[in-house]
Amino acid sequence: MPDREAGGRPAAILIAGPTASGKSALAARLAERHGGVVINTDSMQVYADLRRLTARPGPDEEARVPHRLYGHVDGAVNYSVGHFSRAATALLLTLDGRLPVFVGGTGLYFRALEQGFSELPPVPEAVRAQVRGAAEGRPTEALHADLARHDPEGAARLRPSDRMRVMRALEIFFATGRPIASFYGDPVPGPLAGWNLEKIFLAPDRAVLRARIDARFRTMIAEGALDEVARLRSRSLDPMLPVMRAHGVPGLIAHLDGAVSLEDAILRGQADTRAYAKRQFTWFRHQMGEGWRWMDPGAAQVEL
């Protein structure tokens, strides 16, 4: 694998940061300047169903510079970090010397690129259906308490409100009889392990970011995000699938079901997205390895 190219250019650029921090624009500019390829590193932008609501690059941006691993997964697929790592590994073999510019907000994806990931066992459909049937109508905090009885270490790693990951840990336990942490052994090596990397975390002012998140959510609605969610709702997918839990989707489905007003759904989507951005800051500060440069987005546009 490459270390550093002639002329001092890094072998790959990684651009992370909270949602609405300007990552995509910076990645496209750097890829265009260096003859590179923008590679999605965001767990929601992989889905074909939600271009508007996940702020995927539009056709104009994609025409300017190659974009890969965007919108290539159907919403019915429970796409995982393992799927992403394998797709990124295969893609890197096709670039013919072009600079890979990885960009997104999913910390686990970035960690998998360098440090690898632990492969979890498959869960039989019968077990998944049993666990999800038993969980239907129960609050997530109660499910977290169930997990704490079966797998205390796994429960301690998870927020009591993180329904998707709590359910996943329960499924693993009932499928294997083992705590989920027991599978966190030797990870599958990451495709960028040993590469010389330029790693940037965009860290905008918090008040500015909150305002951008709120404004962007309303712009998404104006540009057709509600229609996207209506099409997704018509498919009657499992509500535990990642695409059904994308920020804004539950509230907008509640609106389409007549349970809340559109304004209430927008306010919920904005609040969920702001909370997620806060978690992104915290996760990158405490969970990522060495070598990340935290930069104001404006400074990054000037310096990089």
Walk me through this protein's architecture.
With 304 residues, the protein is an alpha/beta fold. It has three domains: 6-118 and 189-204 and 288-303, Rossmann fold, CATH 3.40.50; 125-183, Histone, subunit A, CATH 1.10.20.140; 208-278, Helix Hairpins, CATH 1.10.287.890. Helices cover 48% and strands 9% of the residues. The chain contains 13 helices and six strands. It has a six-stranded parallel sheet with strand order 3-2-4-1-5-6, with helices on both faces. Helix 11 runs antiparallel to helix 12. The protein is globular. Mean pLDDT is 93; it is low at 1-7.
Give me some keywords for this one.
single chain; 304 residues; alpha/beta; Rossmann fold; Histone, subunit A; Helix Hairpins; six-stranded parallel beta sheet; 9% strand; disordered N terminus
Task: Please specify the SSE layout and strand pairing.
Elements: E1 12-16, H1 23-34, E2 37-40, H2 59-64, E3 67-68, H3 81-92, E4 100-104, H4 107-115, H5 125-135, H6 140-150, H7 152-156, H8 163-176, E5 197-202, H9 206-222, H10 225-233, H11 249-256, H12 262-287, E6 292-295, H13 297-303
Parallel strand pairs: 1-4, 1-5, 2-3, 2-4, 5-6
